[in-house]
Amino acid sequence: MGEFRRFFLWGSSIILLVILAYTSVYTVEGESQGIVLRFGKFVHTVEPGLRFKIPFGIDRVSIVPVKRQLKQEFGFGTEGASNPTQFSSEQVEERSMVTGDLNAATVEWIIQYRIREPQLFLFEVRNPGETLRDISESVMRTVVGDRTVDEVITVGRQEIEVEALTQLQELVDKFQLGLSIDQVQLKNVNPPMPVQPSFNEVNQAQQEREKLINVANGEYNKVVPRASGEADQKIQAAEGYALKRVNEAEGDVSRFNAVFTEFLKAPEVTKRRIYIETMRDVVPKLGKKIILDEKASQILPLLQMSTDPKGDKR
Q: I want to staple 64 with a disulfide (CB 3.0 to 4.6 A). Which of 25, 108, 118, 215 is the partner?
């Protein structure tokens, strides 16, 4: 009986030591922080490493991955997610939205966030992950509802992401979730399935229109500068010709005025000089010529016939 009691005491001691060691030692991973609660009240925050606490449930530690980027998906779900709030079972309802021009659209998006203040994340709001999902869906429906379906599906995606990120961070801070929103990213944004073929045809027609406009602008940019260059060239040629004719006319005027001045000084001499100069220019252009006196009655005796070495008569 004494041995049994001794064995029981030794066994109880060993079990107590094991429980003591198990409940007083814990490890905080490198990307996390530990939030220590004593009798349910926040005590302090501990950094990564091997740590000790008061055993037997007096101190409890919640490990929060403050350096890990977490993700939530809306309208779809990735298999094997470790985050319990990463996606919802109501994916069809999440992605069905109405745009500002009263058109339906299916919008899938993700948000990436980090836990910035672990104490707020754990104790300020009940179910912070689900609260974040509700806030994100509300913000996205608001932003999409302020735009047309064309903006949502095509040109306005980046603007929607930026505005949704801003509004989401404001609400997260207002509700004191202790989170930092890193990114809001639109994934698949499409019209509803029944109208997708028609919408694709419209997009194709718009793309073809843009293509034809670009081709026309290219032809315009090619033809118009060339025509403008040719027009400038002809205008410059005409201006040069006009300047030449004006200069020639002014030179003729100057020359005439000079001659007229000399004429006024000696009319007979000037007339004779002009006559001689004119005949000097005209007579060489007449070829063979015969000059007759006014009283000559015939020209035959005056013609001298000559023969060249080849025997031709001239």
A: 118
| Burial of residue 74 (number of CB atoms within 10 Å: 0-12, 13-18, 19+) | buried
Q: Please count the residues of the chain.
A: 314
Q: Which region, left, alpha or beta, applies to residue 210 given φ > 0 means left and ψ of -120 to 50 means alpha?
A: alpha
pLDDT tens, position by position, 161-170: 999 999 999 9
Beta bridge partners of 63: 34
CB neighbours of residue 259 within 10 Å = 13
pLDDT in tens, 181-208: 999 999 999 888 777 777 778 778 888 9
Q: Please name the residue ranges forming H helices in 63-127.
A: 91-95, 118-123
pTM score: 0.60
End-to-end CA distance of the chain: 176
- Using a 10 angstrom Cβ sphere, with 0-12 exposed, 13-18 middle and 19 or more buried, the burial of residue 201 is exposed
pLDDT interval class at 304 (50, 70, 90): low
Count structural domains, the chain: 3
Q: What is the C-alpha to C-alpha distance for residues 52 and 18, in angstroms, rounded to an integer?
A: 14
Q: Which domain holds residue 37?
A: 9-64
167 phi and psi angles, rounded to 5 deg: -65, -40
Question: What is the structure's pLDDT at 305?
Answer: 47
